[in-house]
Amino acid sequence: MSDLDYATRGAEGTDRETERGVAETPPHRSGLPVVGSTVAASRDGLDFTEEVSSRGDLVSYEAFGTEMLAVFDPEVVETVLVSENDAFEKGEFEMSFGDLVAPEGIAFAEDERWRRQRTALQSAFTPDKIRGYADEMVGHTAALCEDWGDDEVVEVGDAFATLTLRILTRALFDLDFDAERGGVVREATDAISVMMDRFGLLSVLPEWVPTPTERRYERAMADLDALVEELLAEREMGTDPGADAPERDDLLSLLVAAADADGTGMDREAVRDQLVTFLFAGHETTATALTYTCWLLAGNPAVRKRLDAELDSVLGDRDPEFADVPNLDYTEGVVKEALRLYPPVYALYREPREEVLLGGYRVSGDTTLQLATYNVQRDDRWWDAPDEFRPERWSSEAGKANDDRPEYAYFPFGGGPRHCIGMRFAMTELQLVVATLARRVEFERVTDELDLSMGLTLDPGPVEMRVRKRGE
Ligand code: HEM
Known about the structure:
Elements lengths: L15 H5 L7 E2 L8 H6 L1 H9 L4 E6 L2 E6 L2 H10 L4 E2 L1 H11 L9 H12 L4 H21 L5 E3 H18 L5 H19 L1 H6 L7 H26 L13 H10 L7 H14 L2 H16 L1 H15 L13 H13 L6 E5 L3 E3 L2 E3 L4 E4 L1 H4 L22 H6 L18 H18 E5 L7 E2 L3 E2 L4 E6 L3
Parallel strand pairs: 1-2, 3-9
Antiparallel strand pairs: 2-3, 4-6, 5-13, 6-9, 7-8, 10-13, 11-12
Helix pairs in contact: 7-8, 7-19, 8-14, 9-11, 12-13, 14-16, 14-19, 15-16
The chain binds protoporphyrin IX containing FE.
The site of protoporphyrin IX containing FE (HEM) has 22 residues, from helix 13, helix 14 and helix 19.
């Protein structure tokens, strides 16, 4: 028997394969004629997926013009992402998102084209490179704290997006992004996020209907394209402000060089799309993660106290540096736990290349698998008190619970060959930024309830917090 037709345990703990035999179709959540569950799924995707999850570990439904199969079983997640990853591709549903953002970029490329791009880009993310980015991460965070006044109420989502975009462009592109350039990327991010929130509804509207959402998106992407062209031209001509550096090996230079070289699978269009991919993937995700982390810390004083104790003992009265990261265990637990409760990438999508048996069910080649990160990471079969913020579950003392849990009960960075290329960058950034912030400020919640929605990332809605400067 192949890995694909292994038996999985059903919600009641029954062995689906022996009880019902393989090759049944999964439970189905029926919807309305023609549009299926599109309206329900796009109105409140999180509630909808939660409702779907009560019907089994693999549940099909029709939405967005396609047959969807929601997956809540960590073993099946592992099969799709890791052990049988070759049998799956990103597929049409994911590509329709890709078309909105950067269709030729690494996140949507397949097969040999993807492999060559991944190899070419990997060199920007080696441990040595990340060590070199650490000071920027700390320095920009310290400057942000300087800008805040004591008792000021801040919308932290925006503040963190500006921060992470600054860190990203400095580290990966060797550029200082001024407010104007930052604004272009932020507007494009927001326009895409709104577009994706409405995506389900747009997919059942006739294509020619012009909507304000679509017009905003078109405008924002035109501005972003102009900015990207400007960046590439500046670097090609060596006219950008940092051009006096003798030899540059940042990601932007690598991309410009790749555009002319054979063997990378990147033409000019792909290079433009890589740049856009990294601008989005590299800042919105970490900004969202920071927003959730700080909001959770503000609501959990005991966790905050333990974090402060660790920072006092490891750092004393200095800022963190790269070499401290392995010693900041509790800080790492805080970040991992925030990524468990609020994974910025809340679901992954794949299509089988042909019909497969999955979790004991027959799944046709045109089905879109929705690997439900948000739901799996809050499933009480794998997590005690799943909705509670408990960073200590990541400590070495919690060993047994962690050992018993299936590996893919937690996958905020995906898994297998296509796992997040920026994972190490992101984890280093999150730990260093949280440590730098915590040394300088405390946050008090002004926004008590988050207004979660499925945008480009898991969107918390506006999050206001009062900043209290420490030691003032
Ligand atoms: C908390 C922060 C982040 C989270 C939660 C996150 C999550 C993810 C996930 C889940 C995937 C896999 C998508 C899939 O399999 O369909 C992914 C892919 C990717 N991420 Fe991240 N990411 C983060 C930060 C970053 C950063 C900082 C960068 C770049 C600097 C980045 C660049 C990428 C790229 C380029 C891919 C596509 C990789 C490929 O297809 O080979 N991400 N990310």
